[in-house]
Amino acid sequence: MTPGLDHTLGIVALGAAVLGATGGMLGSFAVLRRQSLLGDVLAHAALPGLCLGWLVAGRSVVPLMTGALLAGGLAALSVLAVGRFTRLKPDAALGIVLSVFFAAGVVMLSHVQAVGGAGAAGLSAFLFGQAAAMLQADLVAMAVVGGGAAVLVALFWKEIAAVCFDAPYARALGLPVGAIEALLTLLMAMAIVVGLQMVGVVLMTAMLIAPAVAARVWVSRLAPMVGLAAVFGVVAGVGGAVLSAGARGLATGPVVVLIATGIATVSLLLAPGRGVVWRLVRNRRLAARLEGLRVLDTLRAVAQAHGDPDYPAQTGMIAAAHGLPVDRQLRQLQAEGLVAAVCHPPEAAQHWVLTPEGRARLAMVGEKA
User: Fold this and answer.
1) The organism sits in which domain of life (predicted)?
2) 22 contacts 198 by C-beta, under 8 angstroms
3) How far apart are CA 102 and CA 125, in angstroms?
4) Which tens digits make up the pLDDT trace of 315-336?
5) Helix runs in the chain, H state only
6) What is the rounded CA–CA span in Å between residue 19 and residue 192?
7) ω into 224 cis (within 30 of 0)
């Protein structure tokens, strides 16, 4: 690997790490506030702002980013206005604003490319990102935004946590809920703007939501969730930069997003306590336990019907009363010491009786019920 490529990879990897950490941190609050689609709106709304910035000042970075930030702010205000002055629900308002702004951005992009010639061709890179074109100045800007966001989150941590978990209660306490929500939206918009060159308009929302979703299923407290989401974002960013550098023709932004999505998918499947696989295992164990209790109750009912608490019930009799095959449940109950296998001459078939532990288990379940 040449020194120039090493330098470029270093800048891209650091930029992806900063973007992943910032996106994971701020995306956590969006997920908790059930405003995951807001990041998508702000990202897509940045496109007309980029085009407007190019029309005003050409390919200068500052006007482009300023235009994207202003367009994102206008989109956020539009969402609030639609929700306040119409009867549409928040998800409908977000969908309408996203569609309108992105459609306007595509129209403006077509116009800019038509009138701007080859000089405007680079604008299309903002759709899916062009990480290889990152400069050290872009990395500095990303670090400043990410560091500033981290400082603001730390300063207003208690207020942000209150607003995210219970906004009406926070408002009752006298907290400036509207100002806190506006601050979070502004920080998200700034993170999106600085990340456009890395992953683009279309994929930027994944860098906000995927790490946060992955962290949410591993932890149950806010601080660990924010920290873990930032770590997942860094892993996705650096991993995407390294993989795309090692394989010709792979765009960095999409690879970063795929890794972040993969982390989220694995987390949703395997996270202890909340993962899909863990839930399936837990539900199967619970179902088996309930079936075992039903078998115990059947044994007790048979014994009561015969007026003998130690009446030996045949396996077939238990299965008939239970309505299902019970061999597996009986073996499990025997292993737990809740039933005992006995002989009942002259019959040769296997019979079962409740043990004192089995009666105690049924009594305990009856008391809880």
Assistant:
1) Bacteria
2) no
3) 15
4) 888 888 777 788 888 888 888 8
5) 3-32, 36-57, 61-85, 90-116, 125-128, 136-155, 157-165, 167-172, 177-216, 222-246, 252-270, 276-305, 315-322, 327-335, 356-368
6) 9
7) no
Burial of residue 51 (CB within 10 Å: 0-12, 13-18, 19+) is buried
H runs (alpha helix) in 247-340: 252-270, 276-305, 315-322, 327-335
CATH 1.10.3470.10 at 3-271, yes or no: yes
| Residues of each domain in the chain carrying CATH 1.10.10.10 | 278-368
DSSP bridge pairs for 339: 354
Largest Cα–Cα separation, the chain: 101
288's tokens: 């088996």
Contacts (Cβ under 8 Å, ≥6 apart) of 213: 31, 264, 267, 268
Q: Alpha carbon 287 to chain centroid distance?
A: 29
The identity of residue 63, as a single letter, is: P
Q: How many CB atoms lie within 10 A of CB 166?
A: 12
Domain with CATH 1.10.3470.10 in the chain: 3-271
How far apart, in Å, are the Cα atoms of 250 and each of 41, 184, 246, 356? 26, 33, 9, 67
Helix axes 177-216, 157-165, angle to 10 degrees: 80
Fold of 278-368: Arc Repressor Mutant, subunit A (1.10.10)
The span from the CA of 353 to the CA of 338, in Å, is 9
Tokens standing for residue 359: 């009666």
Q: What is the pLDDT of residues 109-138, one digit of tens each?
A: 888 877 765 555 567 777 777 777 777 877
Tallying the residues shown for the chain, one arrives at: 369
Least Cα distance to 126 among 43, 185, 62 occurs for 43
Q: How far apart are the first and last CA of the chain?
A: 69
**Would you state the torsion angle of the CA atoms of residues 255, 261, 264, 266, taken in this order, to the nearest 10 degrees?**
-80
Q: Give the global pTM.
A: 0.81
| 264, HSE (Cβ side, Cα atoms, 13 Å) | 21
Round to whole Å and give the CA distance between 228 and 182. 24
